[in-house]
Design a protein that fits this description.
mainly alpha, transmembrane helix, 74% helix, membrane, elongated, 50S ribosomal protein L35, transmembrane
């Protein structure tokens, strides 16, 4: 599978954004004794996007480069 044309920073940012929304939704569902169906799907999608981003970027990401990648995506969004 050729991932050379995939924007890994964008995939990582979208995956992190979905995870930020899905994790509190899962906690809320558990605390209300409801099954966390939508939150589970969100967490799975977020995990898949983050893994794909790590796979698509040569060398992967480190803890130092993740905020830089998110900042690059947000800067592109603001300057668009």
């Amino acid at each position: 599978m050729d991932l050379s044309s995939v924007d890994a920073d964008l995939l990582l940012t979208i995956g992190l954004a979905i995870a930020i929304i899905a994790i509190p939704a899962a906690i809320s569902a558990f605390s209300d004794s409801r099954p966390p169906r939508a939150a589970t799907v969100g967490i799975l999608v977020a995990g898949a996007l983050i893994l794909l981003a790590f796979y698509a970027r040569p060398g992967g990401y480190t803890l130092k480069t993740v905020p830089e990648a998110v900042a690059r995506v947000l800067a592109r969004l603001v300057n668009y």
